[in-house]
Inverse folding.
């Protein structure tokens, strides 16, 4: 089966601009997660979708971040306007209902805000 | 709150040596997982150990789990330059769908 796909793999934008990251989970996986690793620090949870619903968005840093998962398939994470401290690697992961098969991570999107 | 805390933060060894990384966590878990991240790239799942397991092997990897001490270790034997990466432990509170909680990671450098 195809894995979790993220794109772009790398994005360089200027402060104040908008960037949209996309994640395509494994087909059939209801659960989709966003994480990020900022400036070599720990990997932090951002939010969790179950199908199209936000199950837990406690990790979203502020209202400049907006995540959607229309139709319960792929998800987008928009940063608007981007700030320098948003630079880092954004990971997406998916899992089946009840954790069957474990979590599968995508390769991540490296975001650089200059 | 941060669950997994790895130590050391950085480790540098010669090729062929063994590398041991440790992870501690604070609350009850269902399982603990180890991941690798090569520089600037994606997370790769290495191994999962459940709370009722004490030791698990996968190739050159050996993971132990001590739930009484809330700690785990990852041993990489006969290290190679290609093992150079950051290693993270991550805990899952249950077998369901709760998010993983990651530690800060250990940066391993294997010198050829």
């Amino acid at each position: 089966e195809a894995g979790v796909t993220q794109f772009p793999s790398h994005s360089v934008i200027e402060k104040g601009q908008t960037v949209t990251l996309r994640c395509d989970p494994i087909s059939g996986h209801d659960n989709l997660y966003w994480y990020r690793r900022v400036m070599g620090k720990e990997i932090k949870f951002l939010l969790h979708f179950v199908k199209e619903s936000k199950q837990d968005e406690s990790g979203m840093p502020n209202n400049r971040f907006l995540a959607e998962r229309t139709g319960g398939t792929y998800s987008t994470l928009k940063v608007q306007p981007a700030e320098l401290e948003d630079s880092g690697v954004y990971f997406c992961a998916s899992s089946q209902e009840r954790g069957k098969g474990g979590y599968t991570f995508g390769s991540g999107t490296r975001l650089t805000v200059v | 709150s941060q669950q997994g805390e790895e130590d050391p933060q950085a480790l540098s060894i010669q090729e062929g040596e063994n590398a041991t990384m440790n992870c501690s966590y604070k609350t009850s878990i269902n399982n603990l997982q180890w991941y690798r991240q090569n520089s600037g790239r994606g997370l790769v799942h290495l191994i999962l150990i459940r709370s009722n397991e004490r030791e698990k092997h996968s190739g050159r990897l050996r993971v132990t789990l001590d739930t009484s001490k809330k700690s785990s270790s990852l041993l990489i034997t006969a290290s190679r330059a290609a093992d150079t990466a950051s290693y993270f432990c991550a805990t899952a509170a249950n077998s369901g769908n709760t998010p993983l909680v990651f530690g800060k990671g250990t940066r391993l450098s294997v010198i050829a």
Observations:
- The mean pLDDT of chain A is 91.
